[in-house]
Amino acid sequence: MLLKVSVISVMRTVSAWILMLSVCEIYAAETVDIYQKQSYVSAKPGEAVTLQCTLADRQSTEDVFWYKQPVGQMPQEVGIKGAFMEAVFSSHFKNSSFKLERVENSVSLTIPHPTKDDEAMYYCGISVMKMIKFSTGTFLAITDHPHSNISVLQTPVWQSVSPGELVTLQCTVTQSSRSPSALVQSCCRTILS
């Protein structure tokens, strides 16, 4: 009888360890390294612009999604580019001149002839466990004033946090110009994990 109890106890302990290791593997697999190095890009109307999205080597074969979010609007899916498939654009962008290209672990979104309507925040992301994990994004500004001077400050640049912890990211975009109609914007984003 004592031997049976010991075997059952050992089996429970082994089962618990297997479960813990499985959970650890799931969390390790969920780690996503996807970057957009530029937080801000400006272009003149009609001047081609390319936004870059870089993946970690272990995610280099993942499908990459691009989203556009105009200020004050909901995000819009631009399209998806897989490692082994042609780019697929959502219905709203099917007839646009946007291009998605993939070279190794980088997927770029090119807007050949941007207009003021293309001014927005652009995010790339990959699907992880049926959820899209996004990069930090790049704001594309279409500047039609030839004497603009724009600066961007984002704080913090990088910060490690625990789930459930409150995080505040601040992005300040200032634009000065010789014209009195210069625009000064500041945005503040609070993210709850």
What is the secondary structure topology, with strand pairs?
Elements lengths: L1 H29 L3 E2 L4 E4 L5 E7 L8 E6 L6 E6 L6 E2 L9 E5 L2 E6 L8 E9 L2 E4 L3 E5 L6 E7 L10 E11 L7 E9 L1
Oligomer: single chain
In the CATH hierarchy, what is the architecture of the largest domain at level 2? Answer: Sandwich
Bin the helical content: 10-25%
What is the CATH third-level topology name of the largest domain? Immunoglobulin-like
**Outline type:** globular
The residue ranges in which pLDDT falls below 50 over 5 or more consecutive positions are: 13-29, 177-193
Biggest sheet, open or closed, and with what strands and sense?
7 strands, mixed
In CATH, what is the class of the largest domain? Mainly Beta
Distance between the termini: 50 Å
Brief descriptors of the model:
alpha+beta, Immunoglobulin-like, single chain, 7-stranded mixed β-sheet, 193 residues, 1 helix, 3 domains, disordered C terminus
Summarize the structure.
The protein has 193 residues and is α+β, with helices and mostly antiparallel strands. It is 15% helix and 43% strand. Pfam families: V-set (PF07686).
Q: Please, could you describe this protein's structure?
A:
- This protein has 193 residues and is of the alpha+beta class.
- Helices cover 15% and strands 43% of the residues.
- Strands 2, 4, 5, 6, 9, 10 and 11 form a seven-stranded mixed sheet that branches. Strands 1-3-8-7 form a four-stranded antiparallel sheet, with no helix packed on it.
- Strand 9 and strand 10 (131-134) form a beta hairpin.
- The radius of gyration is 22 Å and the shape is globular.
- The chain starts with a helix and ends with a strand.
- Keywords: Cell membrane, Disulfide bond, Glycoprotein, Immunity, Membrane, Signal.
- Its main location: membrane.
- One of its GO terms (cellular component) is plasma membrane.
